[in-house]
Write the structure tokens for this entry.
Amino acid sequence: MTTISVASSTRQKVISIALSVTMQMALFIALCTLTVWTVYFNTYPPIHDATHSLRHHTLGVPCH
Amino acid sequence: MKVRLLKRQNLFLVAVWAAALCMPAVLATSSQIEFQIKPQAVLPFEAEAKVQAPPPIVTFKTNAQPGNSVGIRIDMPPETPWLSTDFPIVEGRTLFEIETPPGKDGSLSLRPMFPIRGDYTIAAETKDGAKVIATDMFKLHVSENPSKYWNFAMLAAFLFVIGLIGGWLIGGKQKMLPGQLAPTRVELLLSASALAAIVAMACLAVSAEMNLHQHCEKSEAKTETDKSSVSDNSYNLALSGNAETAVGELATFKAQVSDKATHKPAKTLPLQVTVTQLEENFVALTFAAVTNELGQLTWKECFFDGAPHRVEVRIDDGKDNGGVTASKTIAVEAIHPPLSRRLTTLIYMMMFLFGGLLTGFSVTRRAQARSASSSQSH
């Protein structure tokens, strides 16, 4: 009985954290950051070659 | 009368302004060394440009006499930790270094491609053997290409708007239906972000495949053999130096010319050097110089682009000898920019997104608070 109630309260805590506004913002920023990083800064050669021109035409984006 | 005088003055000013634009700029002069550059406004190398601007003409005029030598060293702008340039690996490195006998009028002219924005330091000296006759330092400011500021501004505005939409959706009413993990609008927002990430990855994957095929075609086209040792009726010309180097490293090259009849070094023979990047076919460096007492021309240069380059040396003695040319293909290893420099720019970009997010969120929450207070008062 105690085990079930502990598991339930942990689940509630996880849900409340996962659904908090802060977490929603963090997820949104993380997804956008990942996209921007891939397009502008990823060094994986095929991705780099595909976005080479875009990177060189944007201020502050280092290339090789 | 006054009006006429004013008109004449204006015409004079326009003429002076036009002349200043057309004439090479005398940036600095010491008692014995004069530094000129044409055109006056120098922009850095623009990678992937539709039409690549040719490198500027840099001329050093000296009082060096026959038998003297002219030494030039061009150092690139120091590292800028706050806003990276296109090629951060070459920041603070030496772009070009040469010591050669001067031309007939004591001058030395070269056309180096300036790869990054900032203040270049140019050291020039004339020597008589080991004795330094004159020395001077010059500064050359290279402004960033204005289109890059515009492109960054557009990207910043785009990220701000995306953040604004995100903040507006997250800040809205967080009502949840039974069985939902998050409010509908937030679920939609995160789904849209995930979809954007998937589309970006898919576009990159397709584009990468297309680039791969282009590279295959290019490499097939570059199978010419180098001629590092050539000769004509009058001279033997040999080009030696680094066969491979890396971005930011100073590579050394030497052209050796000997007289075919006497087998002795060919002194004060004019040579034309051209360095071409082979992927985009732009000229990275070109200069004319003469061989020294040993029939040699030695120079050092730093490659800023991680792509194969071709170094060509042509004997330019004015005779109709077909322009005997020695060439050498150099493999230049690309060096990825440091992680810290990439993260710095990423943080700048994300600040715009975060700013938009906070703005959207706070505006929505304030609007909600206002509507709640007005409904309570009613």
Notes: The helical segments of chain B are 2-22, 146-171, 184-221, 339-377. Confidence is low (pLDDT under 50) at residues 1-27, 216-223 of chain B. Chain B touches chain A through 67 residues (CB under 8 Å). The two ends of chain B are 78 Å apart (CA to CA).
